[in-house]
């Protein structure tokens, strides 16, 4: 673990900026900073978003579990809480389709020159996130805590070697990508 | 060869995805944090509130959890804007515009209508991301790659809600 680096607040600002620059660069080059590509995905006509996300997860999963094995990275997962992810997920999904960007790609869209992303998307998100913060004290003990299960990661639940699960997931994700190519999607 | 890649208008989504995956791994290694974007927006709303209503805002329970300050996770979003700008400039596709083509063909090219709908969408997105505890990058990529069950469920519901809403707006395309 690079603990000293993690605690260096000034270095973390630079690391955040540099990782963000790389992230934004790849999002733009991948085409997902466009409204048409995102909405095309949600209408199941353009699978660019799924292809990009699954490739990122495949590479990220192998890299992360490699680092974890070397004790260079820690798991950052919460328990399953259905009241949070199901309801929040559906609200997010509605916003995803109405705006046509997500929180990362909206920033990328701004960098590419989309003014609807800047004036509408970013402003709306800041107000929406602020509204949630206001409501949080009333939600935290109630709906947000509903349906909580003591379940974090799949290898922990199955009690098997994590590399077995990683291998199964990588093969499944590659199969989905292969199928998309075969179907010409 | 390298220059050809940098100036290409579009990469294969697989290649771009590999790049995003590397950034997610670097975030765990260098920042001990999943790569995510939505906390930056609530930190911004907190910073605006602090500027308007004073330091007392920081005592609010949610802002004690997500301290309204410029930190590494906030800089990610600044970086995304810069990175996408660099990419778009290198490929010569940077252009200021208000109305995306698909939207314009369907609902017309009035920027006011598009911005009002984008504001509503942004509100739902910001609200929903905080309710779900993450977004398409935090849950969808960083959580899923850790094999987090919570994040996999969240990602599924992002798309269920997104697909249902998109088809309600544009109609079922098949």
UniProtKB/TrEMBL annotation, chain A:
TM region positions: 12-28, 48-67, 79-101, 113-136, 157-180
One Pfam family from the record: Sulf_transp
InterPro entries: Sulf_transp_TsuA/YedE
Keywords: Membrane, Transmembrane, Transmembrane helix
Superkingdom of the organism of origin: Archaea
Protein name: YeeE/YedE family protein
Species this chain originates from: Methanofollis formosanus
UniProtKB/TrEMBL annotation, chain B:
Principal subcellular localisation of the protein: membrane
Record InterPro entries: Sulf_transp_TsuA/YedE (IPR007272)
Membrane spanning stretches: 12-31, 74-99, 111-132, 152-172
Coiled-coil stretches noted in the UniProt entry, renumbered to this chain: none
Subcellular location: Cell inner membrane
GO CC terms, sorted: plasma membrane
UniProt KW keywords: Cell inner membrane, Cell membrane, Membrane, Transmembrane, Transmembrane helix, Transport
Pfam family, one: Sulf_transp
Membrane-topology annotation of the record: Multi-pass membrane protein
Protein name in UniProt: YeeE/YedE family protein
